[in-house]
Amino acid sequence: PAPPPQTGWERLRELWRVDEQRRLPEETVNIVKSGFTGGLVGWLYGGLPAFREARKTFIERSHGELFQNRADAVQSAHRAGLRSFLRYGWRWSWRVAAFVTIFNTVSTGLSVYRNKTTISNFASAGAFTGALFRMNLGLSGLAGGFVFGAVFGIPVGALLVSLQQLTGETFQEKRNRERRELYERKLAEWQSRLSVTEDIGKTENEAQRALEMERAR
């Protein structure tokens, strides 16, 4: 069997490769999950205040309007709030989802490439993501986003590394252990099959020699 990847580029290529059971690596699945969760949190963060504000504004501006009954007025207020919830929730959702996805992709890529999980990986990922989101504001925005992202990444990285260390091993150490155990298991299976093949070959050779001796007699 092929040995575990030894270089950083080999580990990065394995990050986007499915295994024998057609499953993506756990790191890649976590990136997708975090992006989805970030999008959901962003939608709630931007949508709920917009819903309340739009509903309040509608009520304040609709005192002179006529409604069929109280239920019609309540439904109209809710519809106004729902429109704002969808509009502003989506604006926050895709931005937060993109930020979280890029941040986790870069930090995971650095951890996989360097084969270790450190706070500097998250700080670098935060600086890159912050600069990327603020680069449209020019050089000052780029620098501000770089600093903000780095400051954001340090506490996040410290928290994640601390949580991983509480389990006894970091995520990268766990991944290396699983790779090593899988390789050793495959190697043992290969050696077992090779031993069986050799035994079959010996048996066939002995039978062939016995047959030739019988023919000679």
UniProtKB/TrEMBL annotation:
Protein localization: Membrane
InterPro entries, alphabetized: TIMMDC1
GO biological process: mitochondrial respiratory chain complex I assembly
Pfam families assigned: Tim17
Transmembrane regions listed in the UniProt entry: 92-113, 142-163
GO cellular component, one term: mitochondrion
Keywords: Membrane, Transmembrane, Transmembrane helix
Highest taxon of source: Eukaryota
Primary localisation category: membrane
Membrane topology: Multi-pass membrane protein
UniProt record similarity statement: Belongs to the Tim17/Tim22/Tim23 family.
Role according to the record: Chaperone protein involved in the assembly of the mitochondrial NADH:ubiquinone oxidoreductase complex (complex I). Participates in constructing the membrane arm of complex I.
Protein name, as recorded: Complex I assembly factor TIMMDC1, mitochondrial
